[in-house]
Amino acid sequence: MAAATSRRRKVGKIRWSNLYSFACLRPSTSEERPAGREVLGQPGFSRVVFCNETHLHKKKPYKYPYNNISTTKYNVLTFLPRALFEQFRRVANFYFLLAAVFSLFSLAPFSRASLIAPLVFVVGISMLKEAVEDWHRFLQDLDVNNRTVKTHRSNGVFEDKSWKELRVGDVVKVNKDEYFPSDLLLLSSSYEDGVCYVETMNLDGETNLKIKRCLEACLCLNEDKEFSRFKAIVRCEDPNPNLYTFVGNLEFKKESHPLSPSQLLLRDSKLRNTDYIYGVVIFSGHDTKAVRNSTRSPSKRSRIERKMDHIIYILFSMLVLVSLVSSIGSSMFMKHDMVDWWYLRLPDDSNSEEDDDRFFNPSKPVKSAVLQFIRALILYGYLIPISLYVSIEVVKVLQTMLINKDIELYDEVTCKSVQARTSNLNEELGQVEMILSDKTGTLTCNQMEFRKCSIAGISYGGDITEVDLAASMRMNADFEPFEFSMEETERATRSFELYEFSVSGFSAQNGNARLSKTEEPVIKGFNFRDDRLMNKNWIHGTNLSDITMFFRVMALCHTGIPIEDDNHKTGKLSYEAESPEEVSFLIASQEFGFQFFRRTQSLMVLKEFDPSSMREVEREYKLQNLLEFSSSRKRMSVIVSNEDGQIFLLCKGADSIIFDRLDDNGRTYEQATALHLSSYAEDGFRTLAFAYREIEAGEYERWNTIFTQAKATIGPEREELLEQASEMIEKDLILLGVVAVEDKLQKGVPECIDKLAQAGLKIWLLTGDKRETAINIGFACSLLRQDMMQFHLSLSREAESNNEVKAMEEEILQQIRSSYKLLSEEGNNEAPYGLIIDGKALEIALRGDIKDEFLQLAVNCASVICCRVSPKQKALITRLVKQYTGRTTLAIGDGANDVGMIQEADIGVGISGMEGMQAVMASDFSLPQFRFLERLLIVHGHWCYQRISKMVLYFVYKNVAFGLTLFYYELYTSFSGEVLYDDWYMTMFNVMLTSLPVIALGVLEQDVSSDICLQFPALYQQGPRNVHFSWSRIVGWLLNGMVTSLVIFLANIYILSPTALQQNGFVADIGSLGAITYTCIIWTVNCQIALFTSHFTWIQHLSIWGSIILWYIFLLAYGALPPNLSGNAFQVLIEVIGPTPLYWTITMLVVIVSLLPYFVHIVIQRSFYPMDDHIIQEMEKCLKKDDVRDNQMWLREQRNSQMSTHVGFSARVEAKVVSFSQQMQQKKVSIYRSVTNSPIYRSITRTPFS
């Protein structure tokens, strides 16, 4: 503890405000903020916070909400009314609700219980599912609300307090790597200067740490005991969603101090590189800016579910049609024929009202027709599958359980697995066509690794990329054997770098050129392999002075802080800095023998390895000035003086910026370095150039005077004066080289993107990072290729500075049209194109009169990268892509800045990494890492789409087959109103006797296994093309149901009518006819699902054949009840139909004839028009299991299943193979020419042999 305190105090001695030149740490002054003070107290700026006096916020007008948040859909009071409303918004449920109401008034042909019981069961199951899902959301809220933070109680004592109990005015102490529980006003930090580092990636996606600074007046509040008497008043703006603005003032010690955004710490951002901070709660709970930027998750429905509504409308139209036929037919028969049938005793004018039959009253034909219509609507209601919705709900819940429990979707590193947060979109996973992805934290790990460098025109770092490795393995079989040797000399390196091979990774084996893969890095942030630099071997190289200066720039040009940790026994230090790149540079310089180990206010100390003495020496460098890095400058410089009094400017920055500032004598290595830069960029690395210059003392004194005056300037011109001063000194530089760092991708990202591309999905990258970073990541994850033509849409500096909307629109429109013209007129339509656009150009391109042309260009490009985009732009482009293309879109991100995009997409996926839970809580599915998206879509998405499609089609089939038999019987009996089946037969049909097989189908059906789904990614295209749920298939199954119902009814009627059912001559009555017909239906629909199923387990067999057996058990048990309960079914199985051979013969015959049309259809389809999955299934079953994967037919189909794509790992490998082949051919030609032009060869060829 003492050591930690000592280290903290040591670190805290640095006053960063004296080091930094530009505005990021400049204290706010009253002169600069007059507008802010004027608006305080006016509408929108009326908030008053009493610091450390929370009791004053318990009464109005200063009563503000607690800090708890809620993302649930229901609460205890609203659950019942809202859930019922959601259920009866469905057409089918509302229809059966009306049927249940009519049953209360004796208008239904069935008993009340048989109508009400299924409705209660269906709605109850759906509401239970809604309650369970909302309960999980409640538990997640509970987890966040129960986090604890140190809160001031009294007398300088801080105790743990849950987030939900915080109130406005509470003083809290947040420790390093903790999230801020609410919006806080920074009071002080562990640094004496009151500075703290904040990571806002969860809010805006930016990786660079933000620097916040407290007011000078609050620097005294640096210990717990100082808060025992602390009181202050904050007057500020009202709660709003603006993340980057804050207006207010702090009244402390009878003085008023203006506040700015640099004093505001936002909820869900994290404290980094700072031991602790003290802050006071300004906004709490739903008043915080982060929560106000989030919105309720919209209600999303899959395409199949929306299409299912149309099917219900079709079935309802059929229901109305047959009901009208029954109603009109009944009225016509009653008017013309029934009046002559004396035995019916129809009512007439002479009958009393008590004998009036409302359904058959010739004197009131209109009323009877209307009542018959209502009765028919209820009678034929089994055309509408009441259990369809609840069965789908149950199936989807079980599907999500299988997804959540998939061991292949479990990440052992984070101990997290995929979580389906909603079950409504399972099948939508199988129809995705567009993926819009965030970069930071989604594709990358937020970790930088030092990979390669170029010093004095020589490239170092032998580790190769996966693309090079795969290409070399592919080429081994194609290369013609020839050998040549290479030595690890700089001359050999220079010559062979032209062919983009690495010395340390190259070997000649069996006469073939081959690249090898190096081992994983053992030092975090340092993944460099080259013996020429490692282990101090750099001292043997040429240009030693340049190499030494290169390492000094790496060790001195930064804002990092050395931190002792567990590695102090080995002499190694850890570092903390504003950006992860600087940390990787400091680790690399330490490994090369230049350890930065101490820093004071004006001194930087290195432990350098001295080549002359061959030992480590300690050297001090006086820090004169620091010119910080910014997005506009794209460079950073420090001015230091060594122990000999020499003054050096050390500079690092973007290569284009550094190259423009080189002296004529400093361009020695420019050409070679440019080649290396191109190679590093293709590998997806971030690059920075290193340069330096020596400054004369007199020149420095003159410049420092100008710079000091500019730094002391207060006002808007300060930035411009500082920039002018920097331009004066950052010139005439000498190039040393470049470094290449890797923004490390998450494990499996390139492979995942490659498989998704082969499955036919398009991937767009939307990031808040700068253009260069986005392009590097595009190469790293194989969204871009070196041979890909890139269209860059951006505003010129002139148009941007003039800020004329019309001129900017014309410029962007011209760029779009010229790019699209080039794309359209290109002779080779297979050429790959990539589109890169920045945020400002995107803002113009998404306007009403330009957006259509922009989207037309974008959707025709192989890959699209949008950089510098805001959260609002992410959501907007997601919405426009969805509307313009009509395709199913999936958005994936990990931070709060991705919430809008996630909610706007058809499917939202959140990465449950280390950046908070905002994205996850707004998502439909959460993943531990991006790579799991491959299996989630290609395997589970494909399965779920096919399962739900088959399930709905089968439901339509079986309900049409069952419901139409009632209509046929009505026609056959001259609209008598008799019901063919017993009431409880009707109830049991959907609830028990046919429900289990269809649930098993929806949960366990597989056309192919998971391994084959991944081997044949093009199978996924069945979903986007909607192969299994097209209107042709829907109509086909409707016709199949009609044919089945017709065959079943006619066969039973015309076989049983002229024939005695029993040996004593008794014919079948309505009870026997109904039982026999019902048996045929149960057998037929269950055998149909057996034919329909591709993947059988014991569960399928048990559900299908068990449902048939269950029918006989039910009929036996129901028939055993007393006649007043069982009615016509009394002992019908044992005494009537069971002993009759005709019953069993009819059942077998009807089932065979009913299934014959479908059987013929599948035979013809599989024989002459097979689908991809049909071919794979037959190969698996027909070929031997041992050699099926090595069979030529299998390999051919596997190659054919990989869709042609211009992005992805495989596409880059193909391009690299072509490039390597051309290079090797050039090498062979060069060798051949050098040999044939040699004197020895000429002398041999000219000398005749005897």
Describe the protein's architecture and organization:
This protein is of the alpha+beta class and 1250 residues long. Helix content is 45%, strand content 16%. The protein has 42 helices and 37 strands. Helix 9 runs antiparallel to helix 10, helix 11 packs antiparallel against helix 29 and helix 20 runs parallel beside helix 29.
Number of strands: 37
Strand order, biggest sheet? 16-37-36-35-17-31-34-33-32
| Secondary-structure class | alpha+beta
Helix percentage: 40-55%
**Rounded average pLDDT:** 80
What is the terminal separation in angstroms?
Answer: 93 Å
Form type: elongated
Oligomer: single chain
In terms of per-residue confidence, which ranges show pLDDT below 50 for 5 or more consecutive residues? 1-37, 350-355, 477-521
Task: Throw out a few tags for this protein.
16% strand; nine-stranded antiparallel sheet; 45% helix; 37 strands; alpha+beta; elongated; 1250 residues; disordered N terminus; nine-stranded mixed sheet
Compose a concise summary of this entry.
Its cofactor is Mg(2+). The chain is α+β, with helices and mostly antiparallel strands and 1250 residues long.
What topology emerges from the helices and strands here?
Blueprint: H1 2-11, H2 16-19, H3 34-39, E1 47-51, H4 79-88, H5 91-103, H6 112-145, E2 148-154, E3 157-162, E4 171-175, E5 183-189, E6 195-199, H7 201-204, E7 210-213, E8 232-236, E9 248-252, E10 255-259, E11 264-265, E12 270-272, E13 276-283, H8 289-293, H9 303-336, H10 365-379, H11 386-404, E14 410-411, E15 416-417, E16 419-420, E17 432-437, E18 444-455, E19 458-460, H12 466-475, H13 490-496, E20 506-509, E21 512-515, H14 544-556, E22 561-563, E23 574-576, H15 580-591, E24 594-599, E25 603-610, E26 615-627, E27 635-641, E28 647-653, H16 655-660, H17 670-682, E29 686-695, H18 697-712, H19 718-729, E30 734-745, H20 749-758, E31 762-766, H21 771-780, E32 789-793, H22 797-802, H23 805-825, E33 833-838, H24 839-845, H25 851-859, E34 863-867, H26 871-885, E35 888-893, H27 899-904, E36 907-911, H28 918-922, E37 925-927, H29 932-972, H30 983-993, H31 995-1004, H32 1010-1015, H33 1031-1056, H34 1070-1092, H35 1098-1119, H36 1123-1126, H37 1132-1137, H38 1141-1168, H39 1172-1182, H40 1192-1201, H41 1209-1236, H42 1239-1246
Parallel strand pairs: 17-31, 17-35, 31-34, 32-33, 33-34, 35-36, 36-37
Antiparallel strand pairs: 1-8, 2-3, 2-4, 4-13, 5-11, 5-13, 6-7, 6-12, 8-9, 9-10, 14-15, 16-37, 18-19, 18-30, 20-21, 22-23, 24-25, 25-26, 26-27, 27-28, 28-29, 29-30
Catalytic activity: ATP + H2O + phospholipidSide 1 = ADP + phosphate + phospholipidSide 2
Active site: 438
Subcellular location: Membrane
